Amino acid sequence: MFLKRWHEQSGGKMRDHYEKFVELSNEASRMNNFSDTGAYWLRNYESDTFKEDIEGLWQTIRPFYLQLHAYVRAKLRDHYGEDKVPKNQPIPAHLLGNMWAQTWGNIDDLVTPYPGKTSIDVTPEMLKQGYTPKKMFEMSEEFFTSMGLLPTPPEFWSGSIIEKLAGKEMVCHASAWDFCNGKDFRIKQCTKVTMEDFNVVHHEMGHIQYFLQYKNLPLVYRDGANSGFHEAVGDSLALSVQTLKHLKEIGLLDKSTPQDHEATINYLLATALKKIAFFPFAYIMDKWRWDVFDGSVKSTDYNGHWWKLREKYQGIRSPVTRSENDFDPGAKYHIAANVEYIRYFVSFVIQFQFYKSLCMTAGQYDPHNRSQPLHECDFYRNKEAGAKLRAMLAMGASRPWPEAMRAVTGQDRMDASAFREYFKPLEVWLIAKNKELGEPVGWDSDQ
Ligand SMILES: [Zn+2]
User: Fold this and answer.
1) CA of 184 to the centre of ligand 1 (A)
2) How far is CA 298 from CA 160, 246, 290, 292, in A?
3) pLDDT tens digits, residue range 12-58?
4) Of 397, 388, 384, which is closest to residue 214 (Cα–Cα)?
5) Looking at the annotation, which residues are catalytic?
6) Which residues are in the CB-under-5-Å shell of ion ligand 1?
7) Distance 231 CA to ligand 1 centre (A)
8) 118-130 residue pLDDT tens
9) 209 CA distance to ligand 1 centroid (A)?
10) Which domains can be identified in the chain, with CATH numbers?
């Protein structure tokens, strides 16, 4: 019921405004010599084949997504029953633990492969040790400086808002800001003491590090190599922070915690619920808007098209009947606030490329050595890895993004193979598990 009300009260109220907005936004884009706003957004990626490239990346990820989807559906059926979660059908969207079913980390407890085994959710331990938002930000900063990257200036600490202010109405969506004067950089985040927010802290601090590294460039170059780069920096570091090895090092996990196969599968599944589950959502957020802006979807089909994409790509379905009186895309912040979203898809691909490359630089990963799997790498305190990252960050937007990519990875294109490498043990496990459960992969698209 909460979910339904949210969609009515947020998206539902802006449907007419959005239609008008599309018209005006396209007009502005045409004045800038772009055919529509979708085309205007894509200028940022400096590629004539960008949409095809994204589709290609999705096709690389999709077989793995289908395995995760099937496994999660089987576990949800165990919990809620056959009538609620039928075989061969898309999953009802409200069962995935997130308002938009965009990441599924909140149902980890329902789907964890080996309950009672090691979990990376160290929230209880953080609370026990008296963590505060301030401490979480200090630790994140220390991770950056341990790699030889830049500390934040005093203005960051005096100007940022890292906790929700009592009695004040705030937009709590976390964000990082460059005031473009070379010293004032701030974060606004209603930080809670949880492992999830600890990751968000690193994400936002990644933006700040980028700001710091390119602050002396001319203003037009003070930006990410493309928008996806800006989103990927902090997340690459967070992959290192969340390893069992690192959590042990900073005292959030007991040193004697075993890292056996079962712990590994739990770890990778928990990570997959956040990372893999996100791809089709991130894709359709802009696929829907590309279709709306270029006129191939009319306002009479806004909501229908949204749910068609949700079903086709995510394999989820609305739990209640929807119509063109609703406007469910508008219930997502980035559509209401008109923030381009494919940057997050790009970010989720390239953060694994960055991570893999930094791990190899740090001597923590060797693709030919099975005793050193990618998901166990922690490049904390590694100055060589820091220097590589710095070389890319310091370029800002002064070079085409493939050049920035080359500075860290030696590759000049987006590539989902690092991602597949990271999750390989889980993929093998999921394929076997779905067979064992007799769970068919995929869903019938009949509606
Ligand atoms: Zn961000």
Assistant:
1) 18
2) 42, 50, 12, 7
3) 899 999 999 999 999 999 999 999 999 999 999 999 999 999 999 99
4) 397
5) 204, 334
6) 231
7) 5
8) 777 899 999 999 9
9) 12
10) 1-120+221-440 (1.10.1370)
